[in-house]
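Bench notes, afternoon.
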Amino acid sequence: MRIALELKGLEQFQQRITDLQSRAKGLEDPSEVAFRDLFPPDFMSAHTQHSSIDGFFAAGGFKVQNKEDFDHIRPELDAFVAQQSNFPAWPAMQTAGATQYVKKKLGF
């Protein structure tokens, strides 16, 4: 009986690894993650006074249509993040959002 339990546990472990591998494939190109996915409402409400990343950008007067727009607003965005969130600057907010996104995608 004990051997059967160990084998069942091993099968469950192998299934979990297979599941994690499958979920991880969806994370292969992080440049394709939309801000709305990286910063969902629960994240924004927990860390800012805004319920969406769009509302957060709008409150700061930021219009981001592409990477070039984003690069131009970085100094102002860092200051805005420090004032309007519990992060010291944009990179810390981005890292926290990415960490939560990955954990959720992997099922943790």
